Structure formats: C-alpha cells, structure tokens
C-alpha cells in the first residue's frame, strides 16, 4: 500500500481519467507516492496550510513493475510510480484530515 496526496482539481482530473501528475511529478518524470510511515512528513513538508486535499490509498500490486522504491528525503526509500495512475489503482480515498501531528489514513 502507498499513498498519494492530491488537490481537489488533481483529484477531479484523476476521476475523469486525465491526471498526468502534480507539477513536481511531471518535472521529476514519475509520480511521487509515500508509505504510511512517510505520509504525515510528506503532508507537513509539501501541503502545510492547504485546504481541499485528498489522500488516496494506492494498491501497489495493481501497479506491478511500474513502482520503484528509490532513495529520497533523508535517504528513505519512497515508492515512485513510473506510469499512469488511474482510479482503478485507488483502493480508498478521503479528505486529508489531521489527528494531532499525524494524517488520518483512508480505511
């Protein structure tokens, strides 16, 4: 399981089959994902203070070999998707909610 945070317009594009990645994804050539343990840090670092965000639970087995675990922030291995992300890969989604300093994960 991996997670992706999207803005409301990005989530709408995903639902319409037109999501090509967030600007950082497009610039880097892959879609950035986070593990459960990395999600709150990603939210704090890249989305602090933003409203209207969604957290998506992504089924990695559905993505096959398109996912690579690569070193990133602090040398941690992050899942990177070298391919298309579609709603068929999303197991669950919810609006981003905080509980203390942690992000509430979709069930």
Radius of gyration: 13 Å
Taking the sheet with the most strands, its summary is:
3 strands, antiparallel
The number of helices is 3
Count of all domains? 1
Assign the CATH class: Alpha Beta
Order of strands in the sheet with most strands: 1-3-6
What average pLDDT do the residues reach?
A: 92
What is the beta-strand fraction? 25-35%
Plain-language structure description:
The strands form three sheets. This protein has a three-stranded antiparallel β-sheet. A three-stranded antiparallel β-sheet has the order 2-5-4. Strands 7-8 form a two-stranded antiparallel ribbon. Strand 4 (67-71) and strand 5 form a beta hairpin. It has a single domain (2-103), classed as Protein of unknown function DUF952 (ADP-ribosylation fold, Alpha-Beta Barrel). It is α+β, with helices and mostly antiparallel strands. 24% of the residues lie in helices and 32% in strands.
List keywords for this structure.
107 residues, alpha+beta, ADP-ribosylation fold, three-stranded antiparallel sheet, 3 helices, 8 strands, 32% strand, globular
What is the fold's blueprint, element by element?
Layout: E1 2-7, H1 8-15, H2 23-28, E2 31-32, H3 36-47, E3 53-58, E4 67-71, E5 77-81, E6 90-95, E7 98-99, E8 102-103
Question: How would you briefly describe this protein structure?
Answer:
This protein has helices spanning 8-15, 23-28, 36-47, and strands at residues 2-7, 31-32, 53-58, 67-71, 77-81, 90-95, 98-99, 102-103. With 107 residues, the protein is an alpha+beta fold.
